[in-house]
Every structure is written in C-alpha cells, then in structure tokens.
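Final report, closing paragraph on structural work. Over the funding period we assembled a curated collection of sequence-structure pairs, and we close with a single example.
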Amino acid sequence: FFVECLSAWYQSLSSPLREQIKNIWLLEDDVGWSGDDIGDLVRDYANNTCDLATVNAARHPKKPGPSGSWMFTNASTVSFAEWAPRYEDRYSTRLQVQRYSSRYLKAAHILATVGIIAVSELSSASILHRLQLTYCDMLGRSSGIPYLSYTRINPELWEKLRSKARRENKPRFYHALKW
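Its predicted structure, as stored:
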C-alpha cells in the first residue's frame, strides 16, 4: 500500500513545502541501479510531466479463476471495488520503481480518504486510468530486462549488468537483487 502511505506523508507536509515538490520517487529496497549515480535516473525524467512513471501500467491484472489468476486481483476495500467494479476498470503495474507527481498524490489522497484503497500494484495503475492521468512507461528506457517480480539477480550477474551499463553508457534499474 505504497500509494496511500506516500500520499498521506505528502499531505502531512506544510503547504509551502508541498508546493516545492513536483515528484516523489519510490524504489523498493531490492532494486539496484546499474549506473554510478542514481541521480541520472531522476534527471532523465526531470522534464517529463507525466503523473506516474512506472513499468507497464497499461495491462489488466489476470482475471480471478482456478488457474492463472493474480493473487491481488481483488485485494482492495469494498469502496475500491465499487469505484472500479468491472475487470476492465482495473489495471495493474509493476511497482518496484515508480515516480508520482504531486497531482497524482493529491488525487490518491482524496480517494483514500473515502476508502478507495487497493494493493499498490492494482491501485496505482487503476487510479491513473480511471482519473485519466498521464503516465510514461519506463520499460526498456530505464528498466533492465528482465524486469519481473520473480526475477532474482545474484552478485555475479549484478557485476555483469553493471559492467555492461558502463560499457554501453546505458544504466538501468533491476529487480530483484537478492543477497
């Protein structure tokens, strides 16, 4: 439930401080940046005005069913289920690295205050589409391939990815560094 936590934190700031913040980045603790300066990632998106930078927010979650279902398809409050009642109203995304605009965080906070809450993989992309906010897909541009929730990167592979990034001058973020 990153979206609600970040939006609550954002709302807790003084108004002058909130006005200075254009975007907030979220990176899970097992994400690695293959470059030397993660500021390169932030600078790469500095002039992009999208409300949500993420990986693949245009996909629907797997439908509930006996096989092939996604465990979080219905991980939401009743209010969220009423707000996005049809499968076609729900979207999912990979959440390991995301950038939220202040406009997005304000909208998410308003929704959360009336109980429209879901697990972040579901809520972040659904809010985006239901409110017709803008997004930029980081897949391939900033994310390494493969970039999946079940990917495991060991120290040897991580060194190879970092060497490749230096050689090609194309750093990327990767999930999940597990050691």
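The chain has a mean pLDDT of 89. The first strand starts at residue 23 and ends at 27. We thank the funder for supporting this effort.
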